[in-house]
Amino acid sequence: MSFVVAQREESKLPGRRRLSEAELSILLDSHTRALAGKGGKLAKLPFVDFSGFDLSGRHLSGADFTGSVFDGAILTGARLDGANLSGCDLRRADLRGADLRKANLRGANLSGANLSGADLAGVDLRPGVVAKPHPTKGLPAVVEESRAGAVDGANLGGANLDGSRLDGLYAAGADFSDASLKGAVLYDSNLKGANLSGAFLARAEVSGATLDDAQFRGADLEGVMLAAARTQGARLEGAVEAPTRDVIARAAKLVEMARAHDAWVGSGGQAGAPACLDGADLRPAADQLKGLKLTAISAKGACLAGLDLEGVQLQGANLEGADLRGASLRSADLRGVRLPGADLTRADLTGAVISTLTLAAGRATPADLSGARLRYACLEGARLAGALLDGADLRGAKLPR
């Protein structure tokens, strides 16, 4: 396997050593064996020059890369969960789809990096005291400096930053479109001019943050206290706020209607009653619709964002234009469903059946997702035989293999 894009004999970065392809292969293979409990040794590679290396798909969980340089390195799909990347220079690195869960990125520089679709849940990007090689003595002598984390100009479209620590982060002009930042801490961070269109910011802490000129079109701002942040020039048109008291009160009745529909389907029309949920806001229902038999229900334009609908039966249902962003539809039966123009951004459709529904001999109707938005949705293990996907937006989606 090749690790290097542009091989150099010696590092041009003062105080950083450059490994040969053979040396790196030995160290990382040993790390992989250690992770698998087959001997080996976990990689400790501080102050190394990895710029230009191709480490795509490598299993680097828990490795120590403190103070190393990955400028322009290729790390697409790499496993870096729990890795120590504090003080690292990751400018312009390609980290698309990488796993960085709970990684230590304190004081790291990710300016201009591509992190689209990456998993950064629980990541720590707070300011850190960074140890640097001494400018004249090199290693092991070091000097220390305080540095804030930086992602300015970076692409974090569709990334998962749930529960991350982003205090003091410099993220001016960064692209967080369709990213999930639920419960993220953004105290005193700078997101001036950032693109947060369609982002999930529910319960994010933004006290002291600079959000001037930021774009929030279609963002979920439930529980976000924007009054505690600077928002001059911020564009909030179309942002989704928390359900009102009236919506919460209405949701209980809507859940009763859905359960009556479940009874109607289960009894072959002998009990319950068919329901119509067109335009309804069902967000307060949380997981109360999970596993219900909602065959042939009409919920056109309904808001089902963030709901747990695992195992739900929606054969032949009409969900045209519905908002299903971030909803869980794992193992759901969606045969013959109508979802044209629906928004399923970041929806979890793992193992869902989204295929043709046979109605009778010689009669069948396909699942219709034409024009649907499926950006960064998970469709792994889903069955899509015969599904109509004309004009569907599948950018960043994880598709069936």
Describe this structure in words.
This protein is low in regular secondary structure and 401 residues long. It has helices at residues 21-35, 245-266; strands at 128-134, 138-147, 357-360, 363-365. The strands form two sheets. Strands 1-2 form a two-stranded antiparallel ribbon. The chain has a two-stranded antiparallel ribbon with strand order 3-4. The model is unreliable at 1-9 (pLDDT under 50).
| CATH structural architecture of the domain at 243-401 | 3 Solenoid
- Helicity level: under 10%
Strand content: 5-15%
- First-to-last CA distance: 23 Å
Shape: globular
Strands, total number: 4
Largest sheet, if any? 2 strands, antiparallel
Which secondary structure elements does this structure contain, and how are they paired or packed?
Layout: H1 21-35, E1 128-134, E2 138-147, H2 245-266, E3 357-360, E4 363-365
Antiparallel strand pairs: 1-2, 3-4
List keywords for this structure.
two-stranded antiparallel sheet; 401 residues; 6% strand; 2 helices; little secondary structure; globular; Pectate Lyase C-like; 4 strands
Compact overview of the structure:
With 401 residues, the chain is low in regular secondary structure.
